[in-house]
Amino acid sequence: MKSLSNVRAQPRALAYVRLLLGMLQISGVGLSLAFLLYTGVTTPSLVAVVCTCLITCVSVVLFGSWSKKDSRR
After folding, report:
1. What's the CA gap between 3 and 49, in Å, rounded?
2. In this structure, what DSSP letter does residue 3 have?
3. Which of 4, 7, 35, 53 has the most beta carbons within 10 angstroms of its beta carbon?
4. What is the pTM of this model?
């Protein structure tokens, strides 16, 4: 049987991961846009865009189904 503290800790940990991924997405978009505006299509700007897309994909895979479950309630 799970203890009550473990039951409460798991959603909190997932909330922190979700918050961190969201902050990384926002920072990545800003960095990518700045690179693209100031340097054009260069290797660093493309790396920033690809990393931001990967972070977004991870976020959608991990948390995308939650929004669908929440909207059905």
Report:
1. 42
2. -
3. 35
4. 0.71
